[in-house]
Structures
1.
Amino acid sequence: MDCIFCRIAAGEIPSATLYEDEDFRVILDLGPATRGHALILPKAHYRNLLEIPEELAGKAMILARKIVAAGKKALHCDGYNVVQNNGAAAGQTVFHFHMHLIPRYEGDQAGVTWKPGTLTEEEKQEITACMTEALR
Ligand code: AMP
Ligand code: ZN
């Protein structure tokens, strides 16, 4: 299998590495939404949030917090988006689990928001019923 993020995480392809430990490498995104946009890559290959083991997913979130804290200090950003895409329909283009850490600056034009829709009473009931059933 030829996965670019496996190769970057393993250090076979050079990257702008911000942080590395036994489980993860954190790199700068080559197509940044804003200054300092970083990616958390697990060193082992998992396609998405459903494949990554729970314990590693937990570690990824703890690491995200560490990077956000460092970014606020070093980049003087005003906020952060933590984004994690699953599936082509959700915008995933590299099918090796990763988390985007996107520093936000007042007035930047980064497009990581959505236009709010509406939730009808019927949908509220139908979605709550099927989701609570699936979560049992
Ligand atoms: P996603 O759309 O969530 O799959 O995000 C993939 C991200 O990986 C995009 O933001 C790309 O800019 C980024 N990307 C793709 N190839 C590389 C690479 N070789 N080095 C750094 N970032 C990359
Ligand atoms: Zn991979």
2.
Amino acid sequence: MRIAMIGSGYVGLVSGACLADFGHEVTCVDSNAEKIAALKRNEIPIYEPGLDQLVKDNATAARMFFSTDLAAAVGNSDVVFIAVGTPSRRGDGHADLSYVYAVAREVALALKGFTVVATKSTVPLGTGDEVERIIREINPAADVAVVSNPEFLREGSAIGDFKKPDRIVIGLSDDRARAVMTEVYRPLYLNQAPLLFTARRSAELIKYAANAFLALKISFINEIADLCEVTGVDVQEVSRGIGLDNRIGSKFLHAGPGYGGSCFPKDSLALVKTAQDLGSPLRLVETTVAINDQRKRGMARKVIAACGGNVRGKTVAILGLTFKPNTDDMREAPSLSIIQALQDQGAIVRAYDPAGMAAARSLLNDVHFSENAYDAAAGAHALVVVTEWDAFRALDFNRLGKAMATRILVDLRNVYRSQDVAGLGFAYFSIGRPASPLEPKQAPK
Ligand code: NAD
Ligand code: UGA
């Protein structure tokens, strides 16, 4: 199959590379000329484990190409995937579909022969209808089928998720398109990944409902964690105890500082807005959005309380800036609201992240960016684990303790256990577990 992937960001580049790896011929298109020039030089614009090698291998094998010429790529393809961004529309929280519709207009003029246009971007119910309307209005003679093919990969494990998905959802009503999409995913189908064919609008709603449900699950365990904190119960025991019930499932039950990222926050909000507009409000999702917003802001209060109620003039070291490990993506990262709130209360912030420093520099002011965890801890009155990178899972607490002004560890990802660190003189605070507020030791002079 010849495939044009329009939009070469986190989703487009990973999907393009994986489809090329299956043997298809894929042209990744982007309107960002710098991004395409970098890709042609084998430079990967994002951090995603394994992606650099996958892109390099497939480009070298002449299965993966990069271009800014959308028309040429579309005219030469059996399938055109739309994988551009659908951010929150400024002001009202609806999905901003301007990039999707702009691509639809360009695609319409470039179609040659029967072509499937598959929307991989996360788009609200009815967007496929509008994409089809745009294309038919601009090019009434076009032989085209517009399908919905939402993507469920996660950043940080994107290649594995794409290649071993739980399911592939394809919304369509055209038999020729069904045959084409079956061929596109045939290598996965052979791996037993179910192809779920649905109506186009169902596919669009499945994507939002899945993200909203996962967001809701996280907010649920986060609220249970709050209850655990006032009752002295350990939320990890509760997570395990309920997660072993197959009807509930153990995934997405890790309590933390609130979900972030480029998708859960914007998608749950967009779903809320769509449902409100259609007169069928989703009150559970509305509440989830509110709980998560409050939680991210509230995490700074936890740090301040751990520091004795005041951080003015104190130094706080932040470990982990990205919204989750194994990505450089800073979109809606909890670290952003935590750092802002700490600075508002007069704290001096030092920070380190294994992959997110470049993106963080453009988003954060007055932060001292450090070389590593120990450099960040130098002179700090508290150390806060915000993102659970592997590099923070086996820290040398003796070394940290010597570097810090006071030994306070606030672990917002429950990476440690209090017994791991309390013996080393650290006051330890985590999420939904009994605190061990030892009098923090002064570091030896
Ligand atoms: P992104 O911002 O990383 O990438 C989008 C790319 O599209 C950018 O490189 C941009 O330059 C390009 N683009 C914009 N307009 C264009 C045009 N007219 N022609 C060609 N290229 C154009 O976004 P992303 O994170 O890859 O997300 C893309 C979509 O996939 C969104 O709808 C998102 O909700 C959805 N999604 C994302 C993830 C994820 O993990 N990031 C997972 C599943 C679904
Ligand atoms: C999420 C979904 O998991 C993907 O299926 C979906 O394709 C994607 O959104 C999307 O639509 O873009 P992603 O945002 O990359 O993927 O990462 P997740 O692993 O889902 O994490 C999202 C946020 O939830 C992170 O901030 C993470 O720390 C948090 N989280 C996750 C928790 O706090 N607890 C958990 O148990 C799981």
